[in-house]
Sequence to fold (99 residues):
Amino acid sequence: MFKQYFIYIITNEKKTVLYIGVTNNIQKRISQHYFDSQNAKKSFAGKYNCYYLLYYETFDDINLAILREKQLKGLRREKKNKIISDFNPNWDFLNNDFF
Fold:
């Protein structure tokens, strides 16, 4: 069975906070971030209202996706900003790509 995995970067409305994650269902995961931000605020993304998608990559192998997630998390903010800008120059919210 073929599965697709995503690493993603989401932000808050003012684009001041970045959250990096990995999932096999990006629609469901962003919906979970949104729900948490509106309700319990138990997670990092929920506390900072991060549910606006800025960046994503797809993988066929979960191990490669996890490695990439760890790599991105280890970067300084400037490098993360450049990766986002190269992919999405205007930092548009990409949620509609999946919803």
Summary: DSSP finds four helices and three strands in the chain. The chain has a mean pLDDT of 95. The radius of gyration is 13 Å.
